[in-house]
Amino acid sequence: MQTAGTLSMGDKMEKATDARVLAQRTAEIRARMSKAAITAGRQPQEIFLCAVCKGQQSDVIRQSTELPLDFFGENRVQEFLTHKEANAYGGKSCHFIGHLQTNKVKKVVGQVSLIQSVSSLRLLHAIAKEAAGQKLVQDILLELNIADEPDKTGASKGDLPMLLEAAAGLKAVRVRGLMTIPPATTSSRENRRSFSMLRALLESAKKQVGKDMPLDVLSMGMTDSFEEAILEGATIVRIGRGIYGDRK
Ligand SMILES: *Cc1c(COP(=O)(O)O)cnc(C)c1O
Asked: Where are the alpha helices (DSSP H) in 109-240?
């Protein structure tokens, strides 16, 4: 018969291994990020690591607050609320990176430092209204579906000027830049083409809005593509599997 004592010792050993594995993976990601930055002639410090903790338990997230990551990224409102309730993020901030329904906006506005996934006029207005009600300014990114993939979230490129114009008139939101999830591919060349497209869109957005809106964030690149993204100008890479391992 197993006693409670041996069970908890087993638990502890497993946690210690987990922590070591998380630390090793994160160190490796950081090293590769730095290398890509240097290759691109950029400063490693100007690129932020967003740890995508979807599907993870609160205690795994709490463990990872010790790691050299800059903030967490959540793509489900309910998971975000659960982890926040459990104080899983420690002193680190969290970004919302998933599809956000307008009826859940109030659970996220003012609670995350950046909403990366604003993809429609309707959502933009809903966020602005909620932020105004809370008397704060919510930082956001506009998410673009750069290859116009039918089943994907993100606004179409053609809507970008309209979204920027709308945002310019909303005092309670501040657009900081752009985000994309590129088409799934293993081709590093195709990834680079996608990322350079997002970067070009950011440049044209800057021209449109002038100095009033500081557009300096490009969130692009995931576990299998972050080096290409850094070479093309990413300022945030969003890494899930590379830190936490494959999702079940
Ligand atoms: C899951 C997810 C990621 C991370 O993907 P990995 O391949 O696990 O690194 C990044 N961005 C968004 C929006 C995601 O949903």
From this structure: 121-133, 160-168, 188-209, 226-231
pLDDT in tens, the chain (248 residues): 444 445 555 565 566 568 899 999 999 999 999 999 999 999 999 999 999 999 999 999 999 999 999 999 999 999 999 999 999 999 999 999 999 999 999 999 999 999 999 999 999 999 999 999 999 999 999 999 999 999 899 999 999 999 999 999 999 999 999 999 999 999 999 999 999 999 999 999 999 998 878 899 999 999 999 999 999 999 999 999 999 998 77
| DSSP annotation string for 184-201 | P-S-HHHHHHHHHHHHHH
Q: What atom in ligand 1 is closest to the CA of residue 50?
A: 10
Between the CA of 233 and the centroid of ligand 1 the distance, in Å, is 18
> Which atom of ligand 1 is nearest to 224's Cα?
7
Q: Which residues line ligand 1 (CB under 6 A)?
A: 52, 54, 75, 97-98, 181, 222-223, 238-242
Residue type, 69: L
Whole-angstrom distance, CA of residue 93 vs CA of residue 46: 17
What pTM did the predictor assign? 0.93
Q: What residues have CB less than 8 Å from 44, skipping those under 6 apart?
A: 33, 34, 37, 38
Q: Alpha-carbon distance 69 to 29, whole Å?
A: 10
Task: For residue 240, give the ligand 1 atom closest to its CA.
Answer: 8
Length of the chain: 248
> Based on the number of CB atoms within 10 Å of its own CB, is 83 exposed (0-12), middle (13-18) or buried (19 or more)?
buried
- Answer whether 164's CB lies under 8 Å from 146's CB: no
